[in-house]
Amino acid sequence: MPPYTNYHAQRSYPMPDEPFCAELNAEQRALKEKEKGSWTQLSHAEKVALYRLQFHETFAEMNRRSNEWKTVMGCVFFFFGFTALLIWWQRVYVFPKKPITLTDEWKAQQLQRILDMKGNPVQGLASRWDYEKKEWKK
Asked: Where can this protein be found (predicted)?
């Protein structure tokens, strides 16, 4: 691997201030000297090597999709699952039992008590109850 410099290339700023490879070995220096001559004498592999000395990636390599989204979604689903387990554990072991006032029997008794006391007979529950037939008015 060539030594790195303060090289930073991105799609919005494709021409970095410094080349990708700052320190060149003998083979790369010879290629840079050959670059000063006619480019028609350079082979395709030499042109690619010169490009790689200046830039780390091509636009096609910069624009290719990464698989980072899979890691992010995996972490999100892991934390969703962990949160669900934590909520389940709290409901089973931490939270108290439901109060008796939330049972269906208690609610039925409470409704019957309101009807027996004729609570709010003008517009409330007692106004919708038929006391003679013992059923709700239709």
From this structure: Mitochondrion inner membrane
Angle formed at CA 65 by CA 56 and CA 48, multiple of 5 degrees? 30
**What are the E-state strand segments in 13-115?**
none
User: In this structure, which amino acid lies at residue 81?
Assistant: G
Domain residue ranges of the chain, discontinuous segments joined by +: 1-64, 65-95, 98-137
Residues 44-81: tens digit of each pLDDT = 999 999 988 888 888 888 888 889 999 999 999 999 99
Pick the CATH number of 1-64 from 3.40.50.2300, 1.10.442.10, 3.40.50.410, 2.30.30.100: 1.10.442.10
CA separation for the pair 98, 65 (Å, rounded): 51
